[in-house]
Amino acid sequence: MSESYAGKINRKLLKKRRIIDAAAGRIPADLVLKNAAYVNVFSNQICRADIAVAEGLIVGMGKYSGKVEQDCSGKIVLPGFLDAHIHLESSLVSPAEFVRAVLPHGTTTVITDPHEIANVMGADGIEYMLQATEGLPVDVRFMLPSCVPATPLDESGAVLDYRALDSFYDHPRVQGLAEMMNFVGILAGDIEPVEKIVAAQAHHKKIDGHAPDLQGNDLNAYIAAGVYSDHECHDLQDAIAKLERGQFIMIREGTAARNLEALAPLLCDRYVERCMFCTDDKHPNDLLEKGHIDYILKKAIALGADPITAVKAACHNAARYFLLNNRGAIAPGYLGDFVVIDNFQDFHIQQVYKKGERMVENGVVRDFPLPKVEPYLIERAHDTFHLNILSAEDFTDHRPRGILGMVDGEITTQDAGYSDRIDVEYDVLKIAVVERHRATRHIGIGFLQGYGLKSGAVATSISHDSHNVIVVGTSEEACAAAVNRVTALGGGIVVWDQGEVQAEVPLGIAGIMSDEPLETVNRKLEEAKAAAHCLGVGRGIDPFMTLSFMALPVIPALRITTRGVFDVSSQSYV
Amino acid sequence: MSESYAGKINRKLLKKRRIIDAAAGRIPADLVLKNAAYVNVFSNQICRADIAVAEGLIVGMGKYSGKVEQDCSGKIVLPGFLDAHIHLESSLVSPAEFVRAVLPHGTTTVITDPHEIANVMGADGIEYMLQATEGLPVDVRFMLPSCVPATPLDESGAVLDYRALDSFYDHPRVQGLAEMMNFVGILAGDIEPVEKIVAAQAHHKKIDGHAPDLQGNDLNAYIAAGVYSDHECHDLQDAIAKLERGQFIMIREGTAARNLEALAPLLCDRYVERCMFCTDDKHPNDLLEKGHIDYILKKAIALGADPITAVKAACHNAARYFLLNNRGAIAPGYLGDFVVIDNFQDFHIQQVYKKGERMVENGVVRDFPLPKVEPYLIERAHDTFHLNILSAEDFTDHRPRGILGMVDGEITTQDAGYSDRIDVEYDVLKIAVVERHRATRHIGIGFLQGYGLKSGAVATSISHDSHNVIVVGTSEEACAAAVNRVTALGGGIVVWDQGEVQAEVPLGIAGIMSDEPLETVNRKLEEAKAAAHCLGVGRGIDPFMTLSFMALPVIPALRITTRGVFDVSSQSYV
């Protein structure tokens, strides 16, 4: 493993000489895409040539022969796509499974923020993800989670200060500090978030932003602090205000938030250089049904964007922003990451290459070796529940508690008054958040109206951002049973009724990701959704995603935390 | 001087909080440019706002008050300009004097390649320049000279291998490896130049190119080796071929080479993102009479380029190429480097600001503290002549020697046969190169035709790339006397006749730069030129620059080296 500097120079020298030999045509290339029409992101046109690859790198475009030759007549070759901001955990599967899902969609690099797992496992969570992504055929790069816990109200599994993050900046796949959601803290000059920015800059790293609707001099202050991107723009005016002040705009089109239609006008000569695509989160069925960056690219073209301009947003611009200067273009010295499509109208991906290796042919992903994760980290990732067996007593409380009133089609809630008991007829259900990281026995209790459950209970250990267990039930007994089952699984989603599990999705990795294949997880998840709807949960409601946000104490009006019902507007417990 | 990491974070934290406070308007800014129209390089338009600066950085554009307010109504504010590639030594003055000359022209950052001084002093030359540029009000950044000596035929003052360069990459103002002129060596996969590229990449540094007219698969090979810029393009086709393959194009408009007219069509939406301006070299009278990057910018606009597009090439694009991401734009967090002009038509520079300090007002440069250079380096820089006193004997040689035939208006020569004696009537003069670094007593002797000198001798210690002493004379005695005078000066240019100095330009710093002010050097240089012309040197010939290139053994047909006359075409001594 360890290598002297002189040894490294020598190894790279030999590799470089083979690259030069192949480029000059003195030795055959490893791979040649013959007669390719390819997108040239520098001259903004379609060029035609053979594309030669050696040692995983493009060595030239021109006339070449290779050990492997692939005729690309009539096809278009694009650089591999980049997702500029995603939380891999949102796919509910392991990184290797995520990679297996996105490779056929042409993704060859993703920038992940391991915010979810870090809220459970702290620095161990970041290290787990680094190891679990090592050497995968999609290059997974990291932005370090800037807000763990997400708010001071959260009881998360860890607290990461700048010193904890600092230890990761030397890792070759760490690009910077992820979305600084605490823009309020930055604007106030709070020491803790500003220290994180200062430390990231001291390491010459990028800092991503997250500041919906921030404007004017406050926006100036947030950017002047060092935050040079935003992925929260939901209208054009907001995006242009940020872009004009120097921020790069990540046009987000994911599962929960979709901003492409609003921001598509940015994909023009005037603005595109500062724009790129991201998904933020991608749930299993969305990944399987729609795709990934290819879906955004296709939609952008359908919305009228020039294909070459849109391709630049799908690869080159993100690469330049993150200083990944060896990708995002088809040119000598760049990675042999290619997406071969039929044409821009139909846009069928026929092959995907990573570092010159054909990884996908007609949708079929070639097998690849799995990363070796150190055993103690695997054990640690599968042992994140520190919670005793609970009983109905634990969920019983006769004092009146606030009612979170669900709002149709939104993740906001309204204040629906108080209750001191479950009333299924009036759709007043018990809701609780059970702290599960440190065995504190903290259980915050309240009521939920509008969910529709008529029997049993629904519990999930995906609950933003601390991933404690959130449960909604028609009885205290069902609540306790559902939570106990989640605990027994070491994390997961459980639909409980009639004294037994109706459906469940085990999420054994930190309580938020499964060890199973994406298709299996998706099937179980759909079955669980069906089971929840069967028990009465409203058809317009995603039974689990909706719950996941009920504990996020930054969305108005009322939220449920491990300490009880919290009024976001007045910043007080009710 | 030394500071712990914790101390650094704390210092930067306090600074950052003041920046945030000023941006948010809680404290007055240090400087506000009121009512400014400014070029926004992100939205590609002219914006209007107050521009606020604190702690040397722009904190916001909007409505601001400051301790100092400067009304900019009716003016246009541009980001400070960058020269993407220059050899500072070409100005013949010290770095501080160079800075005093270019600041009024709006230059706030230059990227220098200390190739000339490194050929004299080796690593000490690089260190001297680093120290002599520390803290100047133009930020001087370095690309490390890649070709010292320039060719194996040169007898230079030093040989720099990759290990010698490596020791500089940690310096915060070193951006990479300078123009890899040895493209032949790269294409051949020669170990020595390829090692330098590999080592630069191992340090995550940029590598500049120099490959006039290279094309096709050879160009692919050169770029694939890792060379991502070129400043040698002299026609559009050449430039586009390089740009299409991923190279950044430095449009050069300097004293010796001027490519702007040919390359101006690159200044359009399609190509401009990959283009920037550079000068390569700027001689004293050119600096004083024409200016610097402002001259290129004005000329580009006059040639029809859109002013905003041209401004981006003058600042933003170079900054992004060199990863100097805190400059080249007017936006929060960027350096307070501004050029205030009246308008794009007249283009008079009225003020120049560096890090929020007004350094130039109506052409007058504010005094600034000079860098402290360690005494041993000053001594070393002024003691680069290791040469005994010479006599006519040393230049006497009765064997026939080749005649370098000058070509009107070119720096190439033709083979003009042989001679065994000086013949002033037929303009056959003695030419010699005297090794001066290591007291080798190597003196290469030949003849020169076409120079026109009728009496005396002309000698200069500026002689590319090794900066030995080159002399042309009408007698061996005059040659010896002129060289002895150059030696006595510790370097310089000498016009000798009638047993005495007719004119001279002392160049005490490494024999290639003066300790005097630019105006003085320019005056002495013009006097020396006049004196040389007075002695018969043809009016169409620059008496010293022409000589400077006669020893560069890469330009056909014949050259003079310390080992005699060399035929570049046949690569052999004649």
Could you name the key traits of this structure?
574 residues, alpha/beta, 28% helix, homodimer, 27% strand, nine-stranded mixed beta sheet, eight-stranded mixed beta sheet
Secondary structure layout:
2 copies of one chain form a homodimer.
Chain A lengths: L4 H20 L4 E12 L4 E10 L2 E6 L3 E6 L4 E4 L1 E6 L8 H8 L4 E6 L2 H7 L1 H10 L6 E6 L17 H5 L7 E7 L2 H5 L3 H12 L3 E4 L6 H9 L4 E2 L5 H9 L3 E5 L7 H4 L11 E4 L5 H6 L3 H10 L4 H8 L1 H6 L16 E4 L7 E6 L2 E5 L2 E2 L9 H7 L19 E6 L6 E7 L8 E7 L8 E7 L7 E4 L8 E5 L2 H14 L2 E6 L2 E7 L11 H17 L10 H5 L8 E4 L2 E4 L4 E2 L1
Parallel strand pairs in A: 1-4, 1-5, 6-7, 7-8, 8-9, 9-10, 11-12, 12-13, 18-21
Antiparallel strand pairs in A: 1-2, 2-3, 5-14, 14-15, 15-16, 16-17, 18-19, 20-21, 20-23, 22-23, 22-24, 24-25, 26-27, 27-28
Characterization of this structure:
Two copies of one chain form a homodimer. In chain A, strands 1, 2, 3, 4, 5, 14, 15, 16 and 17 form a nine-stranded mixed sheet that branches. In chain A, strands 19-18-21-20-23-22-24-25 form an eight-stranded mixed sheet. A five-stranded parallel sheet of chain A has the order 6-7-8-9-10. The first copy, chain A, has 18 helices and 28 strands. With 574 residues, chain A is of the alpha/beta class. In chain A, 28% of the residues lie in helices and 27% in strands.
Briefly characterize the structure:
Two copies of one chain form a homodimer. Chain A has 574 residues and is of the alpha/beta class. Helix content of chain A is 28%, strand content 27%.
